């Protein structure tokens, strides 16, 4: 059926032919309106339901993943909190062992000091002088009436003189005793100071312990929150994990830059060992580059094991569970290897400098330019050697951010997938609503195409209903009239 | 904990892979992937022998460009050029850069010594020189073979010498550098054109690639 078939229904009357076809189409569409509407509606609803089902299953997956993430996060947090608390307890133990192990001797010292002070204090107490025994006899003699007798007056004068002497002697004795007491009190001062120092030291130690106990309390609170699976704990861990992810990622980026610098130091001299024009198979990868990468990888591995043996990281449970002396042995072996590799790298760095100078000299010879050797040529050589020696040790610390990155990546990747699934649900739901909306729009468009017969139909129905109303109202009027007559 | 173990294993697998690659690098592939060999032919006949400074310029450029593992040879074109005695210097540079640099210095010294004692030859056996070059280049097993001819391209051979036969170039790039014009070319420039066309035709018929560079400012085009 060509286009001509549709346009030449009536010869030479294209517009008329098209109009006839359009009318026929409208009539057919009008007749098939109800089943067509149903078909569109069923199709749209089916699609919407299928998409909703899909969205629900994705939501279920999201929920499961969210729950799994939560479990992982809390498990990690719990492990971390346990490690932290364990470490704090170890610190407390160290404090107790170091500071409070001397507590019995300190107590003994304090007791001794207090005893001495007590003794001194007792000795320094003031004893009131006893009144002389003959004082009553003096009183009795003093009561004797003199009656103007010179003998009595002389006796009394003698008594007076004797008393004065006795008083002076007592006063001197009293002053001497007081001096002694002051001397004793003066001797007590260093003991007091020593006692104060001892008590201050005890206070400091107790304060250190108190601070540790506060930290442990807060950690225990966090640990309890984690164990109780509270939302607060989850939020805190999630936020902490994200922070860790970015910080460790940044540190790893810096480590990669360091590795690149290291690679540049090693790659050129490695050409001397494996050949400058050797490639890996038929690829473009240079053998010298791979060898340089291998050396750097070995250094990183040694660093990882070193950190593991010290207990800074816990990437390899096998090493972590080893006995202390074995771990110490691994530490020394790794450190020795690292020293060897650092030495190799330093010599390679020096060789690199020599090769670069040689290459430069050759290119100058070939171009015919005579350039004198720059002064202080040894400074970059020495710098390269030092860098070559230090970088392997610096790379050792890559293990710390690497562990953090692996830990946090697990959480962050989980969160990212949850977000992706959530977005997928939103998109699927949007498409479902869109499909249903398009179905409804298609139905309206269908009615728009056949609006003329629809208008005629509605007019006809309205007319019919008007006539029916008239009939009913006529019947009612007649009945009313009959009623009135009767 | 399982994730940590997995990460640790992944790390070790990747490092192990690097180790394997490095072992392959040590044992599996000591040959260069792409290898060039350049044979420089210098005309020492009376008219051309004064152009040696240009040859030196190009040779210096080549020594700077060629990598360890690649080959370079210098030979003269005289009355009987199909002869090993005409090779002034030939070297396949060591894979170690320091050794290759030392070889390049030695090569340069040989070239300079040769430049001081050029003896002019009576005849110009270009075909013989090319045959010798092809033989040397095939021996190097290079993937890219170049013959650089410093000559006016006017062949003059002894009586009895047979040089009028097709040569198999087999993908060799032949570059005519600094092709000077003779006095007779000024009388009839068509002779110069004809000489160039004959050589170009001969090289291309033998499966080679012909190029001519007279401007030494474009040295990079010689063995591109």
Number of domains of chain B: 1
CATH superfamily of chain B: von Willebrand factor, type A domain
Order of helices and strands of chain A: HHHHHHHHHHHHH
Proportion of helical residues of chain B: 40-55%
Instruction: Assess the beta-strand content of chain A as a share of residues.
Output: under 5%
CATH topology of chain B: Rossmann fold
Count of alpha/pi helices of chain A: 13
Helix content of chain A: over 70%
Distance between the termini of chain A: 76 Å
Shape of chain B: elongated
CATH architecture of chain B: 3-Layer(aba) Sandwich
Q: Name the beta content range of chain B.
A: 15-25%
CATH class of chain B: Alpha Beta
One letter per element, helices H and strands E, the order of chain B comes to HEHEEHHEEHHE
The residue ranges of chain B in which pLDDT falls below 50 over 5 or more consecutive positions are: none
Greatest contact pair?
A-B, 43 and 40 residues
- What oligomeric arrangement do these chains adopt? heterodimer
Rg from Cα of chain B: 23 Å
* Spatial shape of chain A: flat
Walk me through the structure.
The complex is a heterodimer of chains A (486) and B (224). Chain A is mainly α and 486 residues long. Among the domains of chain A are: 105-227; 233-276 and 283-397, no CATH class. In chain A, 86% of the residues lie in helices and 0% in strands. The two termini of chain A are 76 Å apart. The mean pLDDT of chain A is 84. With 224 residues, chain B is α/β, with parallel strands linked by helices. Chain B has one domain: von Willebrand factor, type A domain (Rossmann fold). Helices cover 43% and strands 17% of the residues of chain B. Chain B has six helices and six strands. Chain B has helices at 2-27, 52-65, 97-116, 126-140, 183-187, 189-205; strands at 36-43, 71-77, 87-92, 144-150, 173-177, 209-213. A six-stranded mixed β-sheet of chain B has the order 3-2-1-4-5-6, with helices on both faces. In chain B, helix 2 links the parallel strand 1 (36-43) and strand 2. Chain B is elongated, with a radius of gyration of 23 Å. The model of chain B has no long low-confidence stretch (mean pLDDT 83). The A-B interface holds A 268, 271-272, 274-282, 284-285, 287-288, 290-291, 293-294, 297-298, 300-301, 304, 314-317, 355, 358-359, 362-363, 365-368, 402-403, 406-407, 410 and B 1, 3-5, 7-8, 11-12, 15, 18-19, 21-22, 24-26, 28-33, 35, 60-61, 63-64, 67-70, 95-98, 100-101, 104-105, 108.
């Amino acid at each position: 059926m060509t286009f001509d078939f549709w346009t030449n229904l009536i010869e030479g009357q294209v517009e008329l032919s098209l109009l006839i076809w359009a009318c026929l189409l409208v009539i057919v569409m009008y007749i098939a309106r109800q089943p067509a509407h149903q078909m569109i509606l069923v199709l749209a609803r089916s699609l919407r339901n299928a998409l909703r089902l899909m969205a629900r299953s994705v939501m279920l997956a999201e929920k499961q993943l969210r729950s799994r993430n939560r479990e992982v996060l809390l498990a990690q947090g719990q492990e971390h909190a346990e490690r932290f608390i364990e470490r704090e307890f170890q610190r407390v133990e160290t404090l107790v062992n170091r500071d409070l192990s001397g507590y019995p001797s300190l107590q003994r010292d304090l007791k001794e000091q207090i005893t001495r002070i007590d003794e001194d204090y007792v000795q320094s107490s003031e004893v009131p002088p006893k009144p002389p025994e003959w004082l009553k006899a003096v009183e009795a003699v003093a009561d004797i009436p003199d009656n103007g007798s010179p003998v009595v007056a002389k006796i009394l004068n003698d008594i007076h003189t004797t008393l004065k002497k006795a008083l002076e002697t007592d006063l001197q004795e009293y002053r001497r005793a007081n001096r002694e007491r002051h001397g004793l009190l003066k001797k007590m001062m260093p003991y007091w100071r020593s006692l104060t120092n001892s008590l201050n030291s005890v206070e400091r130690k107790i304060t250190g312990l108190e601070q540790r106990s506060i930290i442990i309390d807060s950690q225990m609170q966090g640990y309890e929150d984690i164990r109780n699976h509270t939302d607060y704990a989850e939020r805190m861990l999630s936020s902490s994990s994200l922070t860790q992810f970015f910080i460790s990622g940044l540190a790893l980026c810096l480590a990669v830059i360091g590795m690149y610098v290291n690679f540049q130091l090693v790659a050129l001299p490695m050409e001397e060992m494996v050949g400058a024009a050797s490639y890996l198979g038929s690829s473009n990868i240079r053998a010298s580059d791979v060898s340089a990468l291998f050396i750097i990888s070995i250094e990183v591995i040694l660093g990882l094991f070193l950190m593991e043996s010290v207990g800074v990281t816990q990437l390899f449970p096998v090493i972590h569970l080893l006995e202390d002396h074995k771990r110490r042995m691994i530490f020394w072996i790794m450190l020795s290897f690292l020293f060897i590799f650092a030495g190799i790298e330093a010599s390679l760095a020096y060789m690199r400098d020599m090769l670069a100078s040689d290459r430069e000299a050759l290119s100058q010879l070939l171009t015919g330019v005579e350039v004198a050797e720059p002064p202080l040529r040894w400074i970059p050589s020495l710098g390269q050697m030092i860098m070559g020696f230090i970088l392997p040790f610096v790379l050792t610390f890559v293990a710390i951010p690497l562990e953090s990155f692996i830990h946090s990546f697990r959480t962050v990747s989980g969160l990212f997938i949850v977000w992706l699934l959530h977005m997928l649900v939103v998109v699927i739901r949007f498409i479902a609503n869109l499909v249903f909306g398009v179905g409804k729009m298609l139905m309206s468009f269908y009615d728009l195409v056949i609006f003329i017969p629809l208008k005629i139909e509605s007019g006809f129905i309205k007319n019919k209903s008007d006539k029916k109303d008239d009939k009913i109202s006529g019947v009612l009027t007649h009945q009313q009239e009959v009623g009135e007559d009767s | 904990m399982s994730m940590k173990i997995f990460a640790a294993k992944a790390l070790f697998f990747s490092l192990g892979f690097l180790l394997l690659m490095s072992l392959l690098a040590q044992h599996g592939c000591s040959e260069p992937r792409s290898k060039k060999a350049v044979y420089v032919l210098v005309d020492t006949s009376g008219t051309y022998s004064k152009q040696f400074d240009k040859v030196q310029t190009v040779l210096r450029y080549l020594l700077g460009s060629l990598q360890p593992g690649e080959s370079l040879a210098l030979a003269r074109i005289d009355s009987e050029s199909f002869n090993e005695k005409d090779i002034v210097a030939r070297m396949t540079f060591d894979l170690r850069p320091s050794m290759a640099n030392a070889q390049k210095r030695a090569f340069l010294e040989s070239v300079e010594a040769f430049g001081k004692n050029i003896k002019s030859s009576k005849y110009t056996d270009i075909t013989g020189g090319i045959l010798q070059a092809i033989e040397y280049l095939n021996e190097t097993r290079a993937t890219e073979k170049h013959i650089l001819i410093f000559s006016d391209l006017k062949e003059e051979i002894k009586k009895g010498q047979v040089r009028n036969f097709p040569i198999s170039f087999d993908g060799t790039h032949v570059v005519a550098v600094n092709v000077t014009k003779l006095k007779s070319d000024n009388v009839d420039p068509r002779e110069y054109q004809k000489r160039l066309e004959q050589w170009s035709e001969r090289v291309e018929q033998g499966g080679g690639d012909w190029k001519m560079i007279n401007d030494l400012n474009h040295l990079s085009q010689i063995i591109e």
